[in-house]
Amino acid sequence: MVYLILDINSKPIDFHQLIEHSFNSILIVETSGQIVYCNKACFDLLKLTKSADIIHQDIRQFLPPDFQKICMELLTNIHDNQKTIKAEVKMLGNDGEIIDIDSLVAPFHLENQIYVQIIMQNITDRKKTEKELNDREKLASLGQIAAGIAHEVKNPLTAVKGFLQLIKESDTNPYLDIMEDELNKALSTLENLLHVSKPDLLNEPLVTIDLCKELSSLINLFQDKLYNIELKVHLIYSEHKMIGKRNLLQKAFFNLIKNAIEALEEGKGTITIEHYYEDESIHIVISDSGVGIPQEKIKMLGTPFFTSKPEGTGLGLTQVVTTIHEHDGKISFQSEVDKGTTISIQLPVRRNI
Asked: Which of 68, 145, 324, 334 is the most exposed place for a label (fewest CB within 10 A)?
C-alpha cells in the first residue's frame, strides 16, 4: 500500500484511495492487453457489475473491432518508447453501447515491470453536441445556397409565367395549360424552398403552445387515411406548454404524420405518436412500421431535395428539421429497412414569451 505523508497533523493519506475514487476512469494494462487494475470510475463507465468482468480480461473485449488493432499498437508504442500520448478512442460498455473516450496513455512502472496506464474521460455527450452543431451549420449553409438559387431561378420563371398568360389570351392550344400547370408546380417548389431556407421570412409571432392539443387536432385531419392503419396515441403531461411559432410547428408535425402514413405499404401498418414531459423538455416520438430507410441514408435526412419518395422533393423533412432547430430543439432518426422508422423530437419548455 502506498501512502502520501502530509505535514498537516502528520496523518498519512491512503494514496490508493485517491486513485480508486478519482473522477477520471483509470485502467492499468499489460502490453499483452490484459487488464490488471480498474478504478471505480472506469467500472461505472463500462457499466460493469463485478470485478471479474474486467480484471485479467483482455482490453480488446471492451473495444469496437475497428479500434482493437490501433489500441494494441498504441500499447506497444507506449511500452517501447516510454512516451505519454493523448488520443481519442472508442470503448464498448457492458451493455454494448459505444462510448467516446478522451484518453491519456502513459507508461507505469511497478516492481521492475512496465505497465501502461490509461486515464480516460467520457466525451460521448460532447461529441453528440458537436455533431448536432455541425449538422445545424451544414443545414444552414445548404439552406443559404438553396435560397440563393431559388431566388435567382424564381425571377425568370415568374417572367415566363407572365408571358405565358399573355399568349393564352390569344391562343387556345391545350399544351399551354399543361405548361402553366408545370410552371406553377416549379414556382410552388421554389416558394417552399425559400420558406424552408429562411423561415424567419414568415415573421410569425411567438405564442404559448399546447402541443398535446395541436397533435390531437392534426391527427383528426388524417382520419380519412387511417382506415386500415392501427394508430396508437399516447399524449400525456399536457399541462406543460412551450413558447414557439404555432404555424411552423403545426406544419412540421403535419409533415411527420404525413410521412409516416406514406411510409406504410398499401396504407396498412402501425403508427405510434407519443408526447411526454421529461427533464424540462417536451418529447414527441412518431414511429411507423413502414418500409424504413437504409442506414447509409439516414444522415442525409433533412437535406433539401433528398428523398426516398419517387415524387418527393425532400423539402417537407427539411422544414421539420429547420423548425425544430429554430426552436432550440433536437431531432434524431432511427430506421431499419422493412421494419419502420422512429423520429424523436425534444423541445425545451420556456416559461415566458
From this structure: 145
pTM over 0.85: no
pLDDT in tens, 286-315: 999 988 888 888 777 766 665 666 555 567
Can you tell me the distance from the alpha carbon of 157 to that of 186, in angstroms, rounded to the nearest whole number?
A: 8
Domain boundaries, the chain: 3-122, 128-197, 202-353
CATH superfamily of 3-122: PAS domain (3.30.450.20)
Convert the pLDDT of each residue in 101-133 to its tens digit: 888 888 888 878 888 888 998 888 888 777 776
CA distances from 198 to 150, 242, 295, 351 (A): 11, 22, 29, 26
Question: Where are the extended beta strands (E) located within 6-52?
Answer: 12-14, 25-29, 35-38
pLDDT tens-digit profile of 53-98?
Answer: 888 888 998 988 888 888 888 888 888 888 888 888 888 888 888 8
Fold of 202-353: Heat Shock Protein 90 (3.30.565)
